[in-house]
Amino acid sequence: MSHAAYIEDDNVLSLSDYTVACICPLGVECAAVEAMLDEIHEPLPTGRDQNAYTFGRLGPHNIIVAVMPETGNNAAATTATQLLNDFPSFRFGLLVGIGGGVPGSKESGNDVRLGDVVVSQATGAFGGVVQYDLGKKLFDGNFQRTGHLNKPPEVLSANVKRLQAWHYRSPSKMNSYLAEMTRRYPKMQELFQHPGLERDELFCSDYAHQGGSSCEECDREQTVPRPPRRDTDPRIHYGTIGSANMVVKDAVTRDQLKRDTGVLCVEMEAAGLMDTFPCLVIRGICDYADSHKNKQWQPYAAATAAAYMKELLMIIPHQQVKQTVAARENTKAALEAVLNTIEGPIRKTEDQVQYMYKRQEETQEAEILSWVSEIPYQRHYKTALDGLLPGSGRWLFENPEFAKWRESDQSGMFWLCGKREY
Question: In what residue span(s) does the Nucleoside phosphorylase domain sit (predicted)?
């Protein structure tokens, strides 16, 4: 296509026509998301070239896919800020990619396994994402987490629950979307297919990786016995996702996070988005956040996360998205609210400071006036005169010029300079 803008139904699309965004931290995640698009559009010029975008359509929605230059919460925040500036009609985003699973049990309903999908959802004190490295160390050695991240926007939260309800009655369409992806892009077949149930191994928390890119040297006697699954269909889990600027590669730390916060998954970008970027986090599980990490599950996990994203967006009506307030306006309102909460105390403090300065000036002025007023002056003059040794200073007080100055009704200054010695 040679045109700078995409033509749809005889209408030229502009930046204002793109209302949904997907942020991908890694190239393998971006590849999976782009493969789920129904159409890929010709790119449009933006104000700045800081972000790399893919333009396309998924169902009824025109969507932007932004790949991050590097991983981490700070990079995610930078990418999101630029995206908000580039697309005036943008409504909400989805952070789609891979993450480390926090294993549970079938009885708890959180039997997270490789290839499954974890979706951020508000639970208890958390809004779907917790920044687990933000807090303070207590005197008893415990770590108290402070601050809470925002919930996903209502339009996403409502439709996530709607899709969740649908899956109670009917199977997910994720498998059909995965099959369609490899049919349209045969080159993805080998790399993005399910690696096999036999390669989903969970080692005991106290057993460290012994060697090999795929745990070839690890003792299989140290794996956790789990009931086998009947099929390779990915399961979907809803709950809290842990986020920080560090990779968890230790099972003991992972298990402690689960006890402290109840997280189902850990990753490195969501905390940089949730407070300023209306977003839902979708993570495909590629490892168990322990020392046995390897990359063999990453492509398939990225694909399952992208497939869930597609299934979710396909049930959200375009009109519902269009009626949602633009994210830029929400961000502006949030910033104004924060400023109002800050400016009120600032103005109060400024008033108090001005009042204190005024009182201080009034006190100093009163003190000065008390010195130069007539009655205190006479008192000071008499005290000075009575305190002199006999005969000292008489020449000054008896001087006609001094008497004339003291008795004058006009204001004036009397300068007395002592003798200098060098």
Answer: 19-310
d(CA 70, CA 32): 18
The better pLDDT of the pair 74, 299 is held by 299
How crowded is residue 402: how many other Cβ atoms within 10 Å of its Cβ? 14
What DSSP line would sit under 141-155, residue for residue?
A: S-EEE---PPPPPHH
Instruction: Output the DSSP codes for 8-62.
Output: ETTEE--GGG--EEEEESSHHHHHHHHHH-SEEEPP---S--SSEEEEEEETTEE
DSSP state of 99: E
Interatomic CA distance for residues 39 and 28, integer angstroms: 19
pLDDT tens digits for range 221-280: 999 999 999 999 999 999 999 998 888 999 999 999 999 889 999 999 988 888 778 899
Q: How far apart, in whole angstroms, are the C-alpha atoms of residue 231 and residue 172? A: 14
Q: What is the pLDDT of residue 362?
A: 63
Q: What are phi and psi of 28, to 5 degrees?
A: -65, -30
Does 82 have pLDDT greater than 70? yes
d(CA 229, CA 218): 23
Between the alpha carbon of residue 290 and those of residues 19, 159, 318, the distances in Å are 38, 33, 41
Query: What pLDDT score does 342 carry?
Result: 46
